[in-house]
Specification:
This protein is an alpha+beta fold and 81 residues long. It is built from three helices and three strands, in the order ββαβαα. It has helices at 24-33, 56-66, 69-78, and strands at 2-9, 16-21, 45-53. A three-stranded antiparallel β-sheet has the order 2-1-3. The radius of gyration is 12 Å and the shape is globular.
Length: 81
């Protein structure tokens, strides 16, 4: 399975991050250890939402959509708690 995930910073709740991976648990650990430069300064992160896809292509396509203007609006309405 391939996952699209949405993270929210626990120290800066307004900071959010959207990504994709095939190993969700390891990727969250990497974000929280500071191994991802884009998210390192807003640690720790919590998993807000994730969606599973059968193929990497499907996950990457949906991730790109969520990073677009209409995708961010969709995520704000339907995916963020």
């Amino acid at each position: 399975m391939h996952y699209v995930y949405l993270l929210q910073s626990e120290s800066h709740p307004a900071e959010r991050y959207t990504g994709s991976t095939s190993d969700l648990k390891a990727r969250l650990i990497k974000h929280n250890e500071g191994g991802v430069p884009h998210t390192a300064k807003f640690r720790p992160w919590r998993l807000a939402t994730y969606l599973a896809f059968q193929t990497k292509t499907q996950a990457e396509t949906f991730e790109r959509y969520l990073k677009s203007g209409s995708g961010r609006a969709f995520a704000n309405r339907h995916l963020w708690p």
